[in-house]
Amino acid sequence: MFVTAPDLSGAAWRKSSYSNGDGGDCVEVADGFTGVVPVRDSKDPQGPALTFSADAWTSFVGAVREDRLRTV
User: Fold this and answer.
1) Name one Pfam family in it (predicted).
2) Could you report the per-residue pLDDT of 16-72, keeping only the tens digit for each?
């Protein structure tokens, strides 16, 4: 299934509460898009953004909160 990416030119980005405060690991998300959550690297605001389904994003955030993600 092909889904057209939303127009993010007017998106209001906010830094994730899980980003650290010293300039690294900065993830921003944009709210207000029906059914999708745009995500980008705050250090590269003109760079690409990934768009996740709202359900996938909710699952990911839940896994982070519950420390269910393993790092290799």
Assistant:
1) DUF397
2) 776 666 666 688 999 999 999 999 998 898 899 999 999 999 999 899 889 888 776
3-state secondary structure of 23: coil
Total domains present in the chain: 1
- Listed in sequence order, the residues at least 6 apart from 68 whose beta carbon sits closer than 8 Å to its beta carbon are 62
In single-letter form, the type of residue at position 10 comes to: G
60 is a domain residue: yes
Tokens representing 67 are: 């420390």
How many Å apart are CA 51 and CA 59, to the nearest integer?
Answer: 14
Phi first, then psi, for residue 14 (nearest 5°) are -135, 145
Residues spanned by the domain of 60:
24-65
Contact between residue 34 and residue 56 where contact means Cβ atoms under 8 Å apart: no
